[in-house]
Amino acid sequence: MFGQWFDRLLALLGAGTPSTTRGAPSRSTPSRPSAPSADEVSFASVPDEAGDADKSARPRPKPPEKLWKPSPAEYTDQDRGQVLSCDEAAVHTLSSTIISELLASIDKIPPFPVIANKLIEALEAADVRTDVIERLVTQDAVIAAKILNTANSPFYNSPTAIETLPHAIRVIGLAEVSRVAVAAATAAVFDAEERMAHETVSYQQQLVWRHSVATARGAAWLALQLSQDVQRAYVAGLLHDVGKAVALRGLGLAILNGRVRELPTVPVVYAAIEQAHVDVGAMVADAWELAEHLGGVVEHHHTPDHDTPLVRIVALVSGVDELRTNAAHRAGLLARVRSLAERLGVTQVQLMELEFELKKAAAAAGKL
User: Fold this and answer.
1) Is position 334 within any domain?
2) What is residue 242's DSSP assignment?
3) pLDDT (tens digit, 9 = 90+) per residue, 96-153?
């Protein structure tokens, strides 16, 4: 399967650039009419079930929901305009250079930690066992340290220091163990010398990291609202744009190796990374041997014809965040987000709440 992606990426290198008032009432007080006798009662005086007497009891139609609109973007209209008007040939050239560099330095892509993959599989099992999780965690020093740090964080407010992994796992719970493990594995892709090759690469890596963390937490929140698998949504959200992180590493490598001597404008970099990241991500998912549902999200979160509920959730959440944060987001993204919301049964109020959750998550993501 990896060979197929290798061929696909090679092929990309050669692709072309792509009421009526009745008068005043009398001042005299009218006499009170006498009650009609039984013989005088007509059908007209009997309230009809659908008549005037029942009008107040009819349910009123609900007013339409206020249509959600994304809050003001973090980027300016000028930023967006520069991305949309940048030279397509320059974008294609840079995208091809990134892919070429990755193909020539395939060993530079860090492997996804085996333990993290095993933890994801073990935690999705119906009969998950704590002792199995503990044994796996002890085999990866980085993941173990992250779990201990998480258990000792102010969020859990433990009265005493937590010093053992079994205790830490009991405190934070198995779901959080999986999240910590995947976050540690994903962060390794960002934490590399290549991102220090140029300030644009470093800055872009930071933006992608914030977007990935926000999408993970937002996807978990939305999955909970829709009674979907929260854990799967979190992991898929965190990994969906791994292709951007790796593509940025490829750009860093090209700079360090001299293949890119003069960095193109920032808008061209934005557009090139956006163009290349799905194919690069699919290659990475294959090389990492990610579970099929995770690989599907990485490869198809921009492809409406190949979606599943999980892909839709991640695509919706990612789209809401990108409308606010990514000047290089795809044309027609707002319409795509609204369509996905309708298909998933997400209300306009939930979209507003989701955007609020994304802002909180991005603020809490921290720096790399």
Assistant:
1) yes
2) H
3) 998 888 888 777 677 777 778 888 888 777 778 888 888 888 888 888 888 999 999 9
